[in-house]
Amino acid sequence: MSTSIAPLFYANCTSCHNPNGIGHFSLLTYNNAILYAPTIRNVVEFRKMPPWPANPEYRHFKDEALLDSLEIIAILAWIDNGLPLGDTSLAPPIPSYAIG
């Protein structure tokens, strides 16, 4: 997780899924992420998250919130392989978000 999944979550999930965000739970830490692994699997596999109502086959937008196929495969593999933590010394810094 430290070098592959954490950056994906930080780039695509935690702007909403943080203690002050509109997501129903935080994904800023490994311990939070593993609690919600079944939910993460479902919403990522069926492309419900990140939420993006625009059809990417029609047009692309700046800063669109989409996971590509390789990112989805990586997240699902992480879950299927037992949610390994990885080397935390190589993890990117946890982002911080303002209240509101």
Number of strands: 0
Low-confidence stretches: none
Q: Note the total helix count.
A: 4
Question: Per the principal axes of the C-alpha atoms, what is the gross shape?
Answer: globular
Describe the protein:
There is one protein chain. By secondary structure, the protein is mainly alpha-helical. It has four helices and no strands. The longest helix has 12 residues, at 69-80. It starts with a helix and ends in a 20-residue tail after the last helix. The mean pLDDT is 85.
Name a few traits of the molecule.
globular; 100 residues; mainly alpha
Question: Summary?
Answer:
The chain is mainly alpha-helical and 100 residues long. 35% of the residues lie in helices and 0% in strands. The chain has one domain (5-54, 64-90).
Task: Describe how the helices and strands are arranged.
Blueprint: H1 5-12, H2 30-35, H3 37-45, H4 69-80
Helix pairs in contact: 3-4
